[in-house]
Amino acid sequence: MKLILTIALVGLSALNSYAAQPKVAYAFETLTVDTSTRTLTSAYLTRLSSPGPSINPDTSAFMTVETATLRWTINGSSPTSTSGHKATDGDTISITGYDNLRNFRFLKVSGSDGSLQVTYER
């Protein structure tokens, strides 16, 4: 009984130390924000599952909106000028999870064309 409890505590300790690890940025890109519906670059999303088929559910992207006002979604549907979450110049967007990143869509709804600065972390 004592051995099982010790193994369980060691396993729990290892799990807690994994969860406490800070995320590490592994890629950066600048995306154009215009009237076309756009997605994140798939080459960066492919790397999320490296080196094997398992996907880290804590993978994320931190984004900063510059110049444009945009709308975005994470359910795979395309945003419109009146639907989707709204973000304006200087706003930040944080998305966590492979499926949410893969399904992230955005487009400009007003103002000049702008950019979305994206840092990928895992």
Characterization of this structure:
The chain has about 120 residues and is of the alpha+beta class. The chain has a single domain, classed as Jelly Rolls. The chain has three helices and eight strands. A four-stranded antiparallel β-sheet has the order 1-8-3-6. It has a four-stranded antiparallel β-sheet with strand order 2-7-4-5, with no helix packed on it.
Topology:
Blueprint (H helix, E strand, L loop, with lengths): L1 H18 L5 E9 L4 E2 L2 H5 L13 E7 L2 E5 L11 E3 L4 E5 L1 H6 L1 E6 L3 E8 L1
Antiparallel strand pairs: 1-8, 2-7, 3-6, 3-8, 4-5, 4-7
Name some characteristics of this structure:
single chain, 122 residues, alpha+beta, Jelly Rolls, four-stranded antiparallel beta sheet, 3 helices, 8 strands, disordered N terminus
Q: What does the largest sheet look like?
A: 4 strands, antiparallel
Shape: globular
Spans where pLDDT lies below 50 across 5 or more residues: 1-15
* Share in β-strands: 35-45%
CATH topology: Jelly Rolls
Distance between the termini: 37 Å
**What is the CATH C level class, in words?**
Mainly Beta
Condensed summary:
The chain has 122 residues and is α+β, with helices and mostly antiparallel strands. The chain has helices spanning 2-19, 42-46, 98-103; strands spanning 25-33, 38-39, 60-66, 69-73, 85-87, 92-96, 105-110, 114-121.
